[in-house]
Amino acid sequence: MKLSTRGRYAVMAMADLARIENGKPVTLADIAARQEISLSYLEQLFAQLRRAGLVTSMRGPGGGYKLAHAAAATRISDIILAVDEPIKATRCDPLSPNGCTSSGGRCLTHDLWDELGRQINMFLSSVSLDDVINRRVLGTARVFPAAHDAEPRQATPGE
């Protein structure tokens, strides 16, 4: 499963805004330069973020964007959903009564991927912009208990 650039760039730009904003509006040109994202792409994303109520805009000299809510109250899942980025791991259309297979049933691994999508959404709902900019996301999922001992061990790449 892969998150598209819409979701990733929206989160990157909002994190930049949260980190830089000091009560003053921040221009998209400044965010675009710092994050190396196309200005026209950011304009599209911020129009969606504004409609979702996650940012406010100010026009004129000294204008730009500000967070509509505190960084601690802005969930990563809200940002991703605002830019129409569904996070799902199944190939099924959730609005369709049909399953994943040509016969209309669910594939053997449907429940596995469906639960993975739910876990991802739960995780992204538990992380705020404030967590991201203050690097409180690092290390939260790095320790797993080994099957053969009670002591936690460090996860290795690929686990």
How does this model look, in words?
This protein is mainly alpha-helical and about 160 residues long. The chain folds into 2 domains: about 1-85 and about 130-159, Orthogonal Bundle (Arc Repressor Mutant, subunit A); about 90-125, no CATH class. Helices cover about 40% and strands about 10% of the residues. It is built from 6 helices and 4 strands. It has helices spanning about 5-20, 30-35, 40-50, 75-80, 110-125, 130-135; strands spanning about 55-60, 65, 145, 150-155. It has a two-stranded antiparallel sheet. Strands 3-4 form a two-stranded antiparallel ribbon. A hairpin with a 6-residue loop joins β3 and β4. α1 packs across α3. It starts with a helix and ends in a 5-residue tail after the last strand. Mean pLDDT is about 85; it is low at about 140-150.
Unreliable parts: 142-150
Strand order of the largest sheet: 1-2
Order of helices and strands: HHHEEHHHEE
What is the average per-residue confidence, as pLDDT, rounded to a whole number?
83
Q: What structural class results from the helix and strand content?
A: mainly alpha
Distance between the termini: 16 Å
CATH homology-level superfamily of the largest domain: Winged helix-like DNA-binding domain superfamily/Winged helix DNA-binding domain
